[in-house]
Amino acid sequence: MTFRAAGGLYGMQTMQLDLGPQAQLLKGVVAGVRDDQLTAPTPCPDMTVATLLDHVVGLTHAFRKSAEKDPVPGAPVASADALTPDWRVVIPAQLDALVAAWRKPEAWEGDTAAGGVEMPAPAIAVVALDEMTVHGWDLAVATGQEYSADPASVEACLGFASQVAAEPAVPGLFGPPVPVPDDAPPLHRLLGLTGRDPSWRPPA
């Protein structure tokens, strides 16, 4: 996959992004998850709420390390059984650390990696933002919570997801795009591009 970096979609414009607003929204969703919902299904195939929370634990750590130019090797594997018992404390703390790391100017310089994939640092930042934005919706809809994503974050993620959709499919990145009307809300268009049906709800 080729990502346009300098002066392009993931160039200087991306450096104006602040991951903080979306991180705060994700923290709110995580706080709203009840223990009796951990085994509930999510829009992510084969992922329960607990599995997805474990994925969030892994990604928040990995993308902080990406900002610090000390990437975690390989791609993390999420498991409900591996979810730390204190996830309600760990995830907010790791989100704060992730945001702080990407607020340092040097985080945006050069290349870095996440999930075993090396890209320009601004591109990795957008991937991190996309993970927080889309998985925030995944968790919210799976646990019956209202969800309002940060508009600036959704706009940045739409550019990323649109570019990914125009390239050859990358296994494990997104599911097949789900058709969504052109006049649908930006979040719904993002969900469709990342392989999600915006009307998905847990089975009764």
Please describe what this structure looks like:
This protein is mainly alpha-helical and 204 residues long. The chain starts with 19 loop residues before the first helix and ends in an 11-residue tail after the last helix. 42% of the residues are buried. It contains six helices and two strands. It has a two-stranded antiparallel ribbon. The chain has a domain of 142 residues: Up-down Bundle (Four Helix Bundle (Hemerythrin (Met), subunit A)), CATH 1.20.120.450. The protein is globular. The N terminus is likely disordered.
Under CATH at level 1, the class of one domain stands as: Mainly Alpha
Q: Between the first and last Cα atoms, what is the distance in angstroms?
A: 39 Å
**Strand content bin:** under 5%
Shape: globular
Class from secondary-structure proportions: mainly alpha
The residue fraction in helices comes out at 40-55%
Describe the sheet with the most strands: 2 strands, antiparallel
Q: What's the arrangement of strands in the largest beta sheet?
A: 1-2
> How is the CATH topology of one domain named?
Four Helix Bundle (Hemerythrin (Met), subunit A)
Average pLDDT number: 89
CATH architecture of one domain: Up-down Bundle
Order of helices and strands: HHHEEHHH
Counting DSSP H or I runs of 4 or more residues, the number of helices is 6
Q: Specify the CATH homologous superfamily of one domain.
A: dinb family like domain
Low-confidence stretches: 1-13
Number of strands: 2
What would you report as the Rg, rounded to the nearest angstrom?
A: 16 Å
